[in-house]
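Hey, I'm writing a tutorial for new members on how sequence and structure tokens pair up, and I'd like a real worked example in the thread rather than a made-up one. If someone can provide the structure for the chain below, I'll link this post from the tutorial.
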Amino acid sequence: MAETTTGAAMPKGFRSAEQGWPELHRIPYPPHRLPLLGDVVGASRTKPLQDSLRYARQLGPIFRRKAFANEIVFVWGADLTADMSDESRFAKHVGLGIANLRPIVGDGLFTAYNHEPNWQLAHDVLAPGFSREAMAGYHPMMLDVAGQLTDHWDRQLAAGRAVDVPGDMTKLTLETIARTGFGHDFGSFERSRPHPFVTAMVGTLSYAQRLNRVPPPLAPLLLKRASRRNDADMDVLNRTVDDIVRARRTSSGDGDLLDRMLETAHPETGERLSPENVRRQVITFLVAGHETTSGALSFALHYLSRHPEVAARARAEVDRVWGDTEAPGYDQVARLRYVRRVLDESLRLWPTAPAYAREAREDTVLAGDHPMRRGAWALVLIPMLHREPEVWGADAERFDPDRFDATAVRARPAHTFKPFGTGARACIGRQFALHEATLVLGLLLRRYELRADPEYRLRVTERLTLMPEGLRLHLERRHTAVPAARSEAPCPVRGAGE
């Protein structure tokens, strides 16, 4: 396993670009920059990522933006991104919205600084929870939750109503990670409104995003009410997780992620996760384990509804591979190769975790052209990397799953498809998310025809992650559909509080 940054810890706090880029003047920035204020003319307060994509198209593969005293370098060129993927010279940088989440998740896997020991401890303890054997054990519970989704969609169809795709995918993925990882049932499909945990989660993510748009000295004044709401949201997250952990301590587990957090010692050092870190890891997994996958599924369903020829090809593959098997087995999911291409192409166009930051371990020169001091960092814009014309062609904006057939993948340079981040700190749950999403797409394609609203135009909402806004689909039940999938064995789930 690659090592994290060693030696003295990097300086904390926001590090503006002028502190780490000696030749910053060579990097372009947007027109109409104002003294003291920076690049605020025409900037969007609610869609900063899409703002940055617009500037990326104008300014090229490396550029900078400034808001008040804080300046950030953005990178998306394939050669620059590949160089920043060199783990011997670069590491994950925890900053911007991610650092703003540390009050709630601290040194969890996603938000830990590289020098904090709990990252390596938790990673080594939890990595076996994503082995092939573990994944096969999660599969029956994924089927059960997917069955709840199709039951809900059947009721909506019978009532003549369109389905709320982002809302229902959020319910699905929250239930999946809660049951497989922590033996908990949030009862999402039995609720007319989102579970309080989801509402609190959205609140904390949105607050973290807002903190990026306000000068730190003014945040206590300008975000006073929002800060109080965020404190209340954090209390909801903490109480929910504390109830889940308390219930587990009084019952026997079945070897899931929570059992590993509570019972497993590091194989070499014998260390265990502290109670505080267990809480942080549970919140991390409940949030990160469902928020990004729900977005990926929502974008994929949008594109399937808009491209009936793609949906027909994917549906034919499902029918051929699964036949009339009511509950597809674990190994049958990986055989849906075209469905997986649909998912990958959706993640190419709209990676739901749309950026990651990298910092220099030591003084270096990026791609032989841009000097960087130790600790200097840049934000990699994944949607622009995934639209690099030299890699993806002049039609990079077009949805085409065949970009991910085996021949095309082998022909592309490394480090040009990064929906799960890069390096030692890339997403630990990648295979979990891909298996869940491919399974669900297969089940939905087998059961329904997806009909888009002809008036709908894709709008993307930002709350650190990306999600289609207002996406609703009409359904038609396929005459050849088999019964809703359920696992053969019952999957008891323990509940604790709201």
